Amino acid sequence: MAHIELRNISKTFGAKTALRGLDLEIEDGQFFVLLGETGAGKTTTLRIVAGLEKPSEGDVLIDGVNVNDWGAAERDVALVLQQYSLYPRYTVRENLEFPLKSRIRQVDAADIAERVDRVAKTLQITHLLDRKTDKLSGGEMQRVSIGRAIVRQPRVFLMDEPLSALDAKLREALRTELKNLQMNLGATFLFVTHDQVEAMSMGDRIGVLDRGKLVQVGTPAEVYGNPRNTFVAQSVGSPPMNLFDGKLSSGKAVADAGFSLPVAAKANGSTDGRQLTFGIRPEDMFLESGGQAKAEIHDIENHGVAKIVTLRAGETLFRLTTSARDSLAIDETVNFSWNPEKVVLFDKTSGMSLRHSA
Amino acid sequence: MAAVKTRSEVALNRTAIVAVLVVTIIFLAPIYWIASTAFKPRHLATTIPPTVMFEPEIGPFVKLFLRRSQLREQPTQEEYEAAPWWERLVFDGGEKVVRDGRGEVQLSGYPDRFANSLIVAVVSTVLAVGMGTLTAYGFSRFKVAGEQDWLFFILSTRMLPPVVVAIPMFLMYRVFGLNDTHIGLIILYTAFNLSFSVWLMKGFIDEIPKEYEEAALVDGYTRMQAFFKVVLPEAVTGIAATAVFCFIIAWNEYAFALIMTNRKAQTAPPFIPSQVGSGLPDWTVIAAGTFLFLLPVAIFTFLLRNHLLRGMSFGAIRK
User: Fold this and answer.
1) ipTM higher than the 0.85 cut
2) Does B307 touch chain A (CB under 8 A)?
3) Is residue B103 included in any domain, yes or no?
4) Gap from A156 CA to chain B (nearest CA, Å)
């Protein structure tokens, strides 16, 4: 198990910059999730840690040792990919044995058999051992692929969207399983995904990447409750944080959308008259008959446990969650309010949270 | 597959079957002609109209492998009866088997030429496909400065009709003592096929996801080990298709073989027609030579047919 540190990593592909000045530290035994959209540099980061890609600048340290010049084989990391991660033409057993048969590892045959059996049992794939990999379902493939990573007992597990190609039910099941596995192994995981639900539910810590820059690192709760900028506010959480442009005037948010509600948030620096963006999570907004703001119901999504209601105030659409039992109708005018404690203030021009910028 | 077919679909289907049959017959007719002639008695080989029904014999093949000369006088009854069955076949054709001073039977030029063809075609195919696969892998997986230009350059070696350079090649070969040597022809055919092989293999290797090798690299294997253990098994289809193409080209090559070789390393293609010119041609023997010459390519292609079917439909290997 290992501690990973990336220092000032930059990576360019020709004229394209994939990563810019990335600093990242992953503690021993941590489940670290790197969240970002396609092209944000998640996979590049992973490949740099794996040794499949050399950084244009900066250092990669594993357990405090600079491994910049080490090849992928020497770094002792395991990789699980979204697809194509199993060797075709091999059986499941051969796939699991493959990493152990490498010359640099020198595991003897009895030991290999024992380790393969143990891993197969852990992942409940014993019945698949003699099957060819092209006869497996997507979920089984990813299980085997995770098995091939575990069997080696590597220092670090690197996972590149391993669940993205699976259907929703299976993804949910494997999510829990993977998290449990990580805790049982006490292993260091670097998990890359574009799915914020995976990030929130699995990560000990989350790093949000935006176009090659690491915007925020923190626990899921920190990132969710106190996003560093509007990008993070919108990429974490489903539905995302509501954002309203407006101004602060004597403790009240005056939204351009045409309502004003109190704000309790303390901000650094002067805020009066400054163009701001107010951020509030959908679950921190309420429909109340006594609410001080009015909006029309634009859309209602029934999710069983709750309803997600899209409201329209002026031209602005925003969402809040409410009990599934509330009876509502589209185009009905409703009163709403929010929890003043939960409002996050962003500078409108820079998008930075005023809590972070000082 | 849906079993329900409309009337027009059935009609289309039948037309297609008939068309395929006609084309097949047209393509196979010359092969039937050669094959049947190879088993005909000599006097039936050139009849008009052609003889279709006849008792097949293997005389032409026996004659193909033996050095013969015209009989000046008929063998005596004892001589004929003492002769083994194959020698009688030669006597029947009005010829006799040539023997050296110690009475050893002399073989014709054909077996050696056939062996030369095999040696040259097999070795040059192995070399061209082997080198081509490695080169293609390099182009496919690594950033090569000026990659497109290099690939074009490699292909451009095929743009000149080979015969144009035959005379300069001949002169150079004479200086290096490569004329009429196996190695000379092998170098030539390998060079021919290499550009083709690089291009074809690059297409196939591009299709193999690089994730496979990367997984192997991370799993503790070197680039070379990953290539042999993971990439090569996936490339078998492409290698088979490329090998068949290269083998056919090398096996059939005529012009250079004619110019560069005359005896020791001569291959079958220039040898077979040279037999037509010597005296009154025995078409059955020539047909037998041609028929045998067809076999290796047919067998090779037949053995690799499963790979070929997939390999010819580029891009559809695995998706």
Assistant:
1) no
2) no
3) no
4) 11
